[in-house]
Amino acid sequence: MEDKVIIDSRKLITIFGATKVISSTLTQAVVEINDATMIISGSNMEVVKLNLDDKEVEFSGEIKEVKYSHKQEKTSFLKRIFK
Question: With CB atoms 3.0 to 4.6 Å apart as the test, which of 9, 21, 38, 64 could cross-link to 42 if both were Cys?
Fold first, then answer.
């Protein structure tokens, strides 16, 4: 399944492809999506739907910002020395 994000009127966000919800507070949610991390910031954030079997998570609240970043591959100490 491909990653897919749907934002409805900045009040509801549905994320497809989620593998893990790392944290969720009233102001921020952090979701792991395959090889990336998504940070959703806002206010009154709460989990509406969580189905990790189908890789789907949904948050409601006032969505102010969405950041998406790829995970960096960990390199061993020896690889960093002998480039």
Answer: 64
Using CA atoms, how far residue 44 sits from 1, 21, 57, 60, in Å, is: 29, 17, 16, 8
Q: What CATH number has the domain bearing residue 64?
A: 2.60.40.2000
Question: For 74, phi and psi rounded to 5 degrees?
Answer: -75, 130
Residue among 83, 40, 9 at smallest CA distance from 31: 40
Look up tokens 């999506």; give the residue: 33
| Model confidence pTM above 0.85 | no
| Tally of structural domains, the chain | 1
Q: Evaluate the CA torsion angle 41, 42, 43, 48 in order and state its sign.
A: negative
Q: Each residue of 32-68: pLDDT tens digit?
A: 998 889 999 999 999 999 999 999 999 999 999 999 9
Determine the pLDDT at residue 45. Answer: 96
